[in-house]
């Protein structure tokens, strides 16, 4: 069965965005882009909440075509155009969206159908509301976290509304020169 891995930047105090959704505190540079690019290039399915999907759609389809496009923009734009996209949304309609499936109801059943198909891990990008829903349904098998060297004090937390403990097993860590630290965990179901 395919695993869902949550890919998220967060502050040292556990927030994924500021109180109004601000993400201007996230540190990303070529070193992180190269590292992330290698990992996601192995994937064929990306999972998004509506807000994150709309942000991605507004930029990535044409980002690599711009005259001043960076290496990262070109590579990620190519990946984004071919990756299968799954979007959790009650408002977006599924008509005419290239390579995109909208899930608006029966979340657990629909996600499990997708997980049954052969393939690499499904990466859940950002999308705190979608992440919260999938955590509550016990559908996330791993966390790929990039802890930024900042304390926000308030904002949108990564973990909220959790009723039962979630035990994690540390798979790897990696510090970056920017001060960001990658923490890679799997969920320990035992």
Derived structural class: alpha/beta
Q: Which architecture would the CATH scheme give at its second level?
A: 3-Layer(aba) Sandwich
Strand content: 25-35%
What are the segments in which pLDDT stays under 50 over at least 5 consecutive residues?
Answer: none
Percentage of residues assigned to helices: 25-40%
The biggest beta sheet, please? Answer: 8 strands, mixed
Q: Give the termini separation.
A: 17 Å
CATH T-level fold name = Dihydrofolate Reductase, subunit A
How many strand elements? 10
What value does the average pLDDT take?
91
Describe the structure.
- The chain has helices spanning 30-40, 50-63, 71-82, 107-116, 128-136, and strands at 4-11, 15-17, 45-49, 84-88, 100-103, 122-125, 142-148, 156-157, 168-175, 181-187.
- The strands form two sheets. An eight-stranded mixed β-sheet has the order 5-4-3-6-1-7-10-9, sandwiched between helices.
- 29% of the residues lie in helices and 28% in strands.
- The chain is built from five helices and ten strands.
- The model has no long low-confidence stretch (mean pLDDT 91).
- It is of the alpha/beta class and 190 residues long.
- It has one domain (4-187): Dihydrofolate Reductase, subunit A, CATH 3.40.430.
- The chain is globular and about 45 Å long.
């Amino acid at each position: 069965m395919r695993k869902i891995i949550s890919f998220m930047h967060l502050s040292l105090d556990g927030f994924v965005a500021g109180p109004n959704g601000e993400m201007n505190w996230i540190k990303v540079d070529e070193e992180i882009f190269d590292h992330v690019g290698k990992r996601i290039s192995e994937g064929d399915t990306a999972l998004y909440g509506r807000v994150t999907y709309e942000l991605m759609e507004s930029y990535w389809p044409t980002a690599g075509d711009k005259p001043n496009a960076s290496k990262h923009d070109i590579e990620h734009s190519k990946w984004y155009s071919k990756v299968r996209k799954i979007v959790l949304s009650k408002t977006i309609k599924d008509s005419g969206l290239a390579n995109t499936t909208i899930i608006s109801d029966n979340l657990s059943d629909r996600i499990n159908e997708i997980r049954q198909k052969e393939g690499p891990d499904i990466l859940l990008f950002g999308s705190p509301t979608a992440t919260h829903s999938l955590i509550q349904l016990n559908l996330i098998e791993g966390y790929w976290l990039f802890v930024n060297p900042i304390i926000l004090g308030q904002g949108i937390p990564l973990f909220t509304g959790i009723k039962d403990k979630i035990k994690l097993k540390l798979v790897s860590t990696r510090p970056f020169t920017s001060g960001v630290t990658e923490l890679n965990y799997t969920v320990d179901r035992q």
